[in-house]
User: What shape does this take?
Amino acid sequence: MSFSAHIVTLFPELFPGPLGASVLGRGLAEGLWRLETTQLRDFATDRHRTVDDTPSGGGAGLVLKPDILARAIDAVSPPDDPRSRLLMSPRGLPLTQARVRELAAGPGAVIVCGRFEGVDQRVIEARGLEEVSIGDYVLAGGEVAAMVLLEAVVRLIPGVLGAAESHADESFEHGLLEYPQYTRPQQFEGREIPAVLTSGDHGKVARWRREQAEALTRARRPDLLAR
Ligand code: ADE
Assistant: This one.
């Protein structure tokens, strides 16, 4: 069984979007992974197809109603569904490459995309939704965040990336940012490729790359070194 993603959203027309392009799109067409969407509004019960209501206790914005969302989740994900149930939310645990790797090794994910002020806390608890954030900034909704998560996950699924786009050395795989890369021409606007990279000494190249990765990580992301 291939990795299966199911998005619950008020904007299913946004998908596959970027997930349908390039190597991910080819993998989707070849059945290396699956993508389905469900329109949350289809589970509303009133004439106006209402999915949200004002926050209890007052305040601005609207909150997704728990009963409507629960019905949508139950329709796409039975209680014994082995897939992770995610809720894209700026309140979530920050997404990491480690969680991305775990998801890519698993059966798939049901991903709820929030809009408005948030989601009623009771449905988060009752359906065991794992809140995931893609960063410390606020988007208008979870759809683009779900695409970011899926792009990171799906590229790790065997067969999606060719050997030419291998991810052995890339940023975060070893807890460091990636070292600088160069390619021809030898001289570009007066700047040379560092001599060590054209020396043919593989040991020296590996040591230089390691030093560069550590220096870059120390300067930009000291929090990664502390881990
Ligand atoms: N929805 C709104 N902002 C978000 C964020 N930063 N991460 C995930 N989902 C979101």
Summary: Helices lie at 22-29, 66-76, 97-105, 121-126, 143-154, 202-220, 222-226. The mean pLDDT is 95. The beta strands are 3-9, 33-39, 52-53, 63-64, 84-94, 108-113, 118-119, 130-133, 187-188, 191-192.
